[in-house]
Amino acid sequence: MSTLTIEFAQCRYRLMGLLPEQEKRVRARFGALECAAGLALDVEVEVKQSTEPERFMAKLVGPVEYRISMGYEPTAVVVEGIGFSATIERASLRTRMHTCLKDEWFVDGFENLFRALVSYRLFAGGTLVMHSAAFSDGERGFLFCGRSGAGKTTLCRLADQLGLKILSDELNAVAASPQGFALQAMPFAGDFGRMPMPAPPLPLTGLLGLRQSDKSGLHACSQAVAVSRIVASCPYVNADPLLVGPLTERAVLLVERVPLRVLSFAKDASFWKVLDHEYSRPQPALSR
Predict the structure, then answer these.
(1) CB 113 within 8 A of CB 69
(2) How far apart are CA 257 and CA 265, in angstroms?
(3) Once rounded to an integer, what is the mean pLDDT over residues 152-171?
(4) What is the pLDDT of residues 107-145, one digit of tens each?
């Protein structure tokens, strides 16, 4: 059995009990984030091998998407998906994954579990993992939250054509920092950002919702709507009845310090002229 340690967003995750073929597939996906095994760690993930595939959700036929099942218990969070089931302990976040998978389905199952685990680990440290798109011009970071179909991948494609650096078109993290809030890339993505590389956090300059339009422009958003957009964009934890209160409080703090605005964008480069101009202005001082 093999052990593999992955580090990003200032957290380390140690995977134990991997078969050689499982380790190979995980390393192919997350190997750029591997760190030395002797370093202090935050979370342990123990992989338990099973020879009883009937215990788990069956594989689907064809290239179809599916949702993992989440169960929220007082002391643990239960995650189930194709070929695996897992328990995340609330107090320690120690995770046990039972699986019958060894082929390419294993890394998909592990990544589904890993997304949930990372969301809980970062939330425990005050960071929000958000269903979002994010990019940077090297100095300023922009995050765009929204559900599937809002235009996140389309916007990333346009930004990529302009030479902007895409962090991810699916999951990004926002954390409080001494200067305000910081934007951190996550190694989870759809069409953009699937090759994770270690990267420092960026200042969160713009926090935006998305609306596709025939003309690009920025629009104000009430605090109540902004908070609801943030909460809706935080997967896994926003469905956890034990975290509704803390999540809402953090969303309020975020939009108080970085007001959320709505970007209407046409499918051309005009959106960047709007953002570059608007966010080149001095930003208001943080509220105390």
Answers:
(1) no
(2) 24
(3) 93
(4) 999 999 999 999 999 999 999 999 999 999 999 999 999
CATH code 3.40.50 region(s) in the chain: 128-278
- 């902004």: which residue's tokens? 226
Q: What is the DSSP string of 179-241?
A: TEEEEEE-S--SSS--S------EEEEEEEEEEE-SS-EEE---HHHHHHHHHHTSTTGGG-T
Q: Is 166 exposed, middle or buried (0-12, 13-18, 19+ CB in 10 A)?
A: buried
Contact 271, 155 (CB under 8 A): yes
Domain boundaries 128-278, corresponding CATH code: 3.40.50
Coil/strand/helix, residue 119:
helix
Q: Is 150 left (phi over 0), alpha (psi -120 to 50) or beta?
A: alpha
Task: Give the chain's mean pLDDT.
Answer: 91
User: Which residue has better confidence, 283 or 169?
Assistant: 169
Q: Which of 200, 183, 199, 205 is nearest to 281 (CA)?
A: 205
